[in-house]
Specification:
Strand order of the largest sheet: 1-2
Shape: globular
Largest sheet: 2 strands, antiparallel
Helix content: 40-55%
């Protein structure tokens, strides 16, 4: 697997997961108020998780495909806004996927806000930083909704897996 396949496929699948989770949340009687729900008091609410996830796609593409990207600092205030942001991110991802990515072994410097700097390659950045960070935030969003009592489970977290399901052979009953 190369950097492009790893990032684009993971991000596309999990943004689809986020869309499904948010559709269930939007149908809840609490509505948009759920966007302010948190997993723990010292963690960001669901609305911020959505912003982070959409921004993370652009940040990764900036690092591996050289696009110009500026992270949004605004959280979605409604589920409709959240869904629109995810749709826009998916559309951007479809365009960015057409670009040439840096070679898997290309040097990449990852500087994070606390001042730490990591020397990586494009593929190690994708595998060891970008994808795990992305999954962390999607798992937090999922966990917030579980904590809030929504009926979500593993099938809601990995709906993309149903494309691989083996259907049992149908018997012939004469």
């Amino acid at each position: 697997m190369n950097t492009k396949d790893l990032l684009v496929t993971s991000q596309r699948h999990m943004l689809g997961t986020l869309k499904g989770l948010l559709a269930k949340a939007a149908a809840d009687e609490r509505g948009d108020a759920l966007l302010q729900a948190k997993l723990a008091e010292d963690m960001h609410p669901l609305s911020v998780q959505v912003r982070f996830l959409c921004n993370m796609v652009g940040v990764a593409m900036q690092r591996v495909a050289g696009i110009d990207f500026t992270s949004s600092e605004e959280d979605p205030a409604t589920f409709a806004e959240a869904q629109a942001r995810i749709d826009a991110t998916l559309a951007d991802l479809a365009e960015w996927e057409k670009l040439d990515f840096a070679a898997d072994d290309a040097a990449l410097e990852l500087a994070i806000p606390n001042g730490m700097v990591f020397d990586m390659t494009t593929i190690t950045y994708a595998r060891d930083w970008s994808v795990p960070q992305f999954y962390f935030h999607i798992m937090v969003a999922y966990s917030i909704l579980r904590k809030e009592g929504l009926d979500v489970g593993k099938a809601d977290f990995v709906p993309h897996m149903f494309q691989y399901i083996r259907q049992p052979a149908s018997g012939t009953d004469g």
